[in-house]
Amino acid sequence: MKSSRLNQCTCLTYAQLVIKHFENPKLSSWNNVTRTYSTTTNGDLEDKTIMSFKQMRCSGIKPVELTYASLFKSCASLLALDLGRQIHVDCCKHGFDSDVYVRNTMIHFYGSCKKIIDARQVFDEMSYTSVVSWNTIISACFRVSWFYESVEYFMKMGGVGIEPDGTTMVVMLSVCAELGNLTLGKCVHALIIEKGLELSCELGTSLVNMYAKCGDLKWASLVFERMPKCNVWTWSAMILGLAQHGFARHAIALFKKMKDSSVQPNHVTFLGVICACSHGGYVEDGYRFFEEMKRVYGIKPRLTHYGAMVDVLGRAGHLIEAYNFIVNMPIKPDATVWRTLLGACNVHNATDFDGVGEKVQEKLLELEPRWSGNLVMVANKYAEVCKWEDAARLRKSMRFKRLKKMAGESCIEIKGSTFRLLSGYDSQATCVGIYLLLDGLSLNMKINNS
Question: DSSP of 274-304, one letter per residue?
Answer without folding.
Answer: HHHHHHHT-HHHHHHHHHHHHHTT-PPP-HH
